[in-house]
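batch job 7 of whatever, protein = Phosphoketolase
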Amino acid sequence: MSQQQEITALKKFVRATNFLATSQIYLKQNVLHKRPLEHSDIKPRLLGHWGTCPGINFVYANVNRLIKKTNRPFLYLVGPGHGFPAVQANLFMEGSLSHFYPETIPYNETGIEDICKKFSAAYGYPSHANPEAPGQILEGGELGYSLSVAWGAVLDNPDLIATVLIGDGESETGPLAASWYANRLVSPANNGAVLPIVHINGYKISGPTRMGRMSHEELELEFKGLGYHPIIVDSDLEEDVYVQMTKAMDESYAMIEAIQTKARNGEDIVKPRWPVILMRTAKGWTGVAEDNGKKLEGNCDSHQVIVNKCAKDKQHLDALDQWLASYKFNELYSINEQNQIVFDKDIQSLLPPKELCCGRQHLSYGGEVVRSLNNPKLEDLAYGAETPRGQRGYSMLKMGQWMRDAFKLNRDQRNLRIFSPDETYSNQLQAVFEETDRAWQWPIESWDEDMSRDGRVLELLSENLLFGMLHGYTVTGRHGMFPTYESFSQVVSSMADQYCKYVYASQGVHFRKPVPSCNVVLSSLLERQDHNGYSHQNPSFLGAMLEKHPEIISAYLPADANTTLVYTERAFADRDKLNIIAAGKKELPQWLTLDEARQQAKDGVMVWDFASDENPDVVLAGCGDYVTQECMASLVILRELLPRVRVRFVSVTELSSSGLGSRKFQSKPWMMDEIFTADKGVVFNYHGYPNTIKKLVFDYKGSHRFRIKGYEEEGSTTTPFDMGVRNGTSRYHLVIDMAYKLFQQGVIDETQHVAITTDMLQRLVDHRNYIKANGVDPENIENWVWTR
C-alpha cells in the first residue's frame, strides 16, 4: 500500500470513529443520521467528553496500521478519563464488541443503535474505559494511572507493545509524573515495550495545560531529561498531521525493535532511550468550531459536551446536524446480504486480523493467561514444632525466605515480581537477594549491591508508580507483591480502590476470567515507628480498604511468623482479590506451630487453648502481632495478681468488611458467642484504629460487652513500648481494662479493682520516668519472655 493510500484509509477510519463517538454522546434515535436531526432525536441528558475523542480515534487508527504492518501484539491504554465513546467506536469497528456481545451488539446497524442509545444512559455504558469493554485493563475513572499500568503489563511479555495515550491534563498528576521513571527498571532483553503518546490538546476542563503552553524545544528538553527520545507531531505544522503521525509511529517502532534486538543479542543496554510521541492536535478537533462567537475547537470549552442545548435550541441542533453530516458516514459503509456492515475497502485495509485486534488481545482477559505459581514448602521454612512458646523470631524474614524460594521455583516461568518502593531491605525481605536482584537499567557501579539488568525486584521511591505496575502485571496474569511502610501505604489508597473496582466489575463480565491477587504487605508498622516519630504512625490504609467488598478485600494480621507464612501462601493462591498482610519486621515472640497456624487461618479467629482457661470470667482478644505480645504479657500480670480469675485469649488474624474472621467463620453467627462467650466482658486489642473494629462488630448482639483498644493518633519519637502506652494498648492498660470488666461482673470487689488499677498506673509512671532517664525500655519489657 502506498503512503497516499494509507493516509486516505486513516482519514476515512477516523471520520467513521469520530461520527460514532459523536452519535453516542448526543443521539437516542436517528443515530446513523439518515435524515436531518429533530429535537426528539437528542438524549435527555448529554454526558461524556467530546474534546479528547478525536485524539483517541486518531491514535487508535494509527495503532491498527502498525499492527497490520508488523503483525505484532499491541495493547492500547487510554489515559484521558472520559473518552470512552471513542474507544467504543473503535471496538465496534474492529468487530470486538460483536465478538463478545453478539446478541446485543451485532455487527450491523442495530449494533450501532445499541452503543449510541445506551452510552451514558441508565444501566448502559459508562463514559470511561471499564472492564465491560474488551481489551481494557484499566478502570479509567481516575486520571494518572495509565502509564504505570502499561509498564506493568509489558513485564515478562517480551513480544507485547503497550501503546498508552496520555492526556496533557493527566500528565499533571503525581502518579503519571512518577511513571516516566519506569524506564530505569524495565529491561529490553526480556520484557515488552511501552510506546507513550502524550496528547497535547492544550486544555483541561476550564483552562490550559502546562504542556499546552510549552514550546517544542521545552518539551524536547523535558523528555530528553527523563531519558526518552521525543518525536513531535503537530497539526499546526505545514506537513499533513496524518503523514507526520505515520512517520512517528514507524520511527518509534524501529527504535523499539532496535533496542530490543541489541539487548536480546547480549548487548548491555544502559539507559535505553525509548521513544515518546508528543502529539499536538486541537481539543475537539473536527467538531463545531465556534458557538455565538465563542471559540470551541482548540479551546477548553470543547472539553465536554459542546452545543449542549440541541434538545431545545434550534441553532445548536443545526450545528450538530451539520457536524454529523460533515463526516459523511453513509459513504463509508454498506450492508451485505447477511445484514452486516461492510466498511469501505480503505477502512478494511486498517482492520487487523481478529486475533490481533486491540479488543481481542488475550492478555487483557485475565485468567486465560494466568501463569500459576509453584509454591515453596512451608515445612522447610516454618519455625519447628519443637520451638517453645514465646521464642523470638521474625515474621518478615520468613516472608522473605518464602519469596526467595518462590523466585527459585518459578525462575523459568518468569511470573513473579516484587514491587517495592525502596523498602526491600528495610522491610526485612533481603533473603530474596539470594535468588534475584533489583532491576536497574541505568549505570550500575561496582559498589552497588544486589542490582542487575534483569532483577525480579523493582525498587523506586514512588508508591504510585510501583502500585500501578503491580496492577498491570496482575491483571495480565502474573503474581506480585507490594511491600511498603504502613504509614505511607495511604499514598496508593485511591489506586487500590480503583483496582478493586476494576476486579469487582470484571467478575460480572462473561469473557473476563479470575486474575491473580494484588498482594499489599504492610510492614514497618506503627508500633515500631518509635524512632521515626509521629509522621510514620498511620494505619489508615487498613481501615480504608476494609470499607470495600468483602469478596475483594481480605486483611490478614498474623500474630507470628508461621501464621505469616500461611497467609502469604494463601494470598498468592487467591484470585480476584486485594490482600493486605500486616506483619512486623522486628523480633517478636512466636506462638503457633505450623499446624496450629494453618488451623488458625481456616477461621481467622481462634481461641488459644495454651493461653486460656475453661469457663472464663473475662475474654482478651488480640489482632496484630505487636498487640498480641502485649495481650500475652497482660495475661501473665493478671494471673500473678488474680490467680483464681479465669481468662480466655482469642486471636483474630483475618478481617473483611463483613466482620471478624474468614467468610467461613462469618457464615456461622453463633460462633461469635462460642468464641467470645455469651455474657462475659471482652477487651479487644487491635493494631489499627479502634473504630475499624467497632464497625465490624456493630451488628453483633454482644458488641456492648467489647472494650476496643487501638491506635488513638497519639505518637512521638519515643521507645517501642511507650508507643503502646501512649495509645492505651500496653499490657498495663489491658490489665486495667480487664480488671474493670471483672469488677463490673462482680468477679472482683472494688478494693481489688482499685488496687490493681493503682498498681498499673504506678507502673506506667515508673516506666515513663525510666525511659526519660535512660532512653530505652527496661530489660523486663524489651526482652520479655512468655511464661504460663
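notes: The longest strand covers residues 193-200.
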